[in-house]
């Protein structure tokens, strides 16, 4: 089953390829391909340059907002996200080229995630609507690693959760519908959150109006769609896994990370990365050291083999040496990455983790506030980290006292500038940094409560998210509990929900009542059959901590979990969306 499932997930890239090449083939002849920088890495996951060239693309240029784009062809294809700001830059370029070179060239715009009415209106206002041809393009979920998928819409959280733009939801619904056409319709579906319910309705509408999944069986027994807002604690906490810290410190984009000028592809096809990606960071450096020692012994043994016959030497060089040298390079890469993480985090990691753990356990509040204040006073203060700690403290306490919020806000704005004031309004809108409802002026209570989002820590007792005992170093290196991703302090909510579903100690309908705004849909044949295969789709992004927790859950239960999201996210991305 595993190979079949992996092959089907691999077919998603082929579907995306076919969609884009069909568009390129409709533009006969050679053309220049101008791509927005944010779309380069996702597109590389779908298709290579050779495929583009085989469909008429001559030159490929990165869309530069200021510099003019060279031109080698009379046909220009702009490959851009569906947003107004980017389109305005493209309109300006097209208008400038038309005014300088006449109308000899033809212009085409491919909108990733579809054509919105506001985009057509902008083209009309700029006076070029009749001079360009536009094409909608929806790529399928992109496979970043084995059973890890992303639609790679990094602005989804800001556009949808903060700005209330629901136009992206149809793209998500299409991606889920495509999955069901490939894998079949699951017999059990869990939906959590307002946005997820809207997407679920859209998926059903596509099934009714376009096509229903023809397969009666399904490779996935249970489909779970959740809003990121159900658990803001997970992204705000600092992940303690190797990949989680890589993302925290350097930022991982479409499965790649840049460290000291070197671009590293993160894939389980890399033998070393597959061993360390979900390990607790305290265990990674020692593992890499032991692996390096083992490799050096193999290479030294070869060097000492003076009596090796010629044929044996040829066989070793052809069959093993190349593999060993590749392993050596990979070890060197990940050792460098570990050293870079240590350089960035060493001075603050222990105090930061202690403070985070105290916050979510509702301990030492005064000391926690003092630590936050001290981080703001530091010359090298990280404003994202400070805002994350403020939000975490608010979530754990069910809101802060009004004077506490005012004091922390004042210190932050003094340290980082008053241009950050809208960030506090946005954090309050999300329900991350709020004032305790009972202490609000009467006329403000309705507004504040209307904007409150489900607080994850309030569910801790129901879902046993906070382990009763601390995890020792051995437990972190050989984890038996998903809380290891936060050094034993907290279990991500959705990971724990899946754990409960696997155990099936409680009827599914009762389980859905554990989390607010959650619904369960069962087909007539579902009964009480054990559920061992899942697809979990996070609207608003999934974290590497959740990925690692799910991988451990697979190992402990023998289940299979496909993880999907609108993007890979972390606390920095959540906070940046609010700025």
Automatic annotation (TrEMBL):
Q: Which SUPFAM superfamilies match?
A: Sec1/munc18-like (SM) proteins (SSF56815)
Record-linked PANTHER family: VESICLE PROTEIN SORTING-ASSOCIATED
Cited Pfam families: Sec1
* Protein family per UniProt: Belongs to the STXBP/unc-18/SEC1 family.
Species name: Ranatra chinensis
Protein name per the record: Vacuolar protein sorting-associated protein 33B
């Amino acid at each position: 089953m595993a190979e079949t499932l992996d092959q089907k997930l691999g077919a998603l890239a082929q579907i995306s390829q076919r969609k884009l090449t069909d568009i390129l083939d409709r533009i006969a002849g050679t053309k220049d391909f101008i791509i927005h920088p944010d779309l380069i890495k996702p597109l590389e996951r779908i298709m290579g340059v050779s495929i583009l060239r085989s469909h008429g693309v001559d030159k490929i240029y990165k869309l530069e907002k200021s510099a003019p784009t060279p031109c080698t062809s009379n046909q220009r294809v702009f490959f851009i996200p569906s947003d107004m700001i980017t389109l305005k830059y493209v309109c300006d370029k097209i208008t400038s080229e038309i005014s300088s070179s006449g109308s000899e060239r033809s212009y085409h715009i491919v909108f990733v995630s579809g054509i919105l009415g506001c985009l057509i209106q902008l083209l009309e206002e700029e006076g070029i609507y009749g001079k360009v041809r536009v094409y909608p393009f929806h790529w399928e979920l992109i496979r970043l690693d084995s059973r890890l998928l992303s639609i790679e819409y990094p602005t989804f959280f800001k556009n949808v959760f903060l700005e209330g733009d629901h136009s992206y939801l149809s793209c998500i619904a299409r991606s889920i519908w495509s999955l069901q056409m490939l894998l079949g319709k699951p017999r059990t579906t869990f939906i959590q959150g307002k946005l997820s319910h809207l997407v679920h309705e859209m998926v059903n509408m596509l099934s009714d109006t376009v096509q229903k999944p023809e397969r009666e069986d399904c490779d996935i027994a249970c489909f779970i769609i959740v809003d990121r807002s159900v658990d803001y604690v997970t992204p705000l906490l600092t992940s303690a896994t190797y990949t989680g810290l890589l993302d925290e410190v350097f930022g991982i984009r479409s499965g790649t990370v840049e460290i000291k000028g070197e671009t590293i592809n993160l894939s389980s096809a890399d033998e070393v990365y597959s061993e360390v990606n979900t390990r607790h960071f305290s265990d990674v450096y020692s593992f890499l050291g032991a692996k390096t020692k083992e490799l050096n012994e193999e290479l030294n043994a070869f060097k000492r083999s003076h009596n090796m016959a010629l044929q044996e030497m040829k066989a070793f060089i052809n069959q093993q040496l190349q593999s060993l040298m590749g392993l050596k390079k990979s070890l060197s890469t990940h050792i460098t990455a570990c050293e870079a993480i240590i350089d960035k985090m060493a001075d603050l990691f222990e105090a930061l983790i202690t403070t985070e753990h105290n916050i979510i356990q509702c301990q030492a509040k005064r000391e926690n506030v003092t630590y936050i204040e001290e981080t703001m006073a530091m010359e090298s203060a990280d404003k994202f980290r400070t805002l994350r700690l403020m939000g975490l403290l608010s979530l754990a306490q069910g809101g802060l006292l009004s004077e506490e919020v005012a004091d922390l806000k004042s210190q932050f704005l003094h340290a980082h500038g008053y241009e950050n004031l809208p960030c506090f309004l946005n954090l309050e809108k999300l329900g991350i940094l709020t004032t305790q409802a009972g202490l609000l002026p009467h006329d403000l209570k309705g507004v504040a409560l209307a904007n409150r989002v489900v607080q994850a820590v309030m569910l801790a007792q129901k879902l046993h998210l906070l382990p009763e005992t601390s995890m020792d170093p051995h437990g972190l290196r050989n984890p038996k509990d998903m809380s290891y991703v936060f050094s034993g302090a907290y279990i991500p909510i959705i990971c724990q929900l899946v754990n409960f579903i696997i155990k099936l100690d409680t009827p599914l309908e009762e389980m859905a009542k554990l989390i607010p705004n959650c619904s369960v849909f069962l087909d007539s044949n579902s009964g009480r059959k054990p559920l061992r295969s899942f697809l979990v789709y996070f609207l608003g992004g999934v974290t590497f901590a959740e990925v690692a927790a799910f991988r451990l859950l697979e190992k402990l239960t023998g289940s299979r979990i496909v993880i999907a999201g609108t993007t890979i996210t972390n606390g920095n991305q959540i906070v940046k969306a609010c700025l």
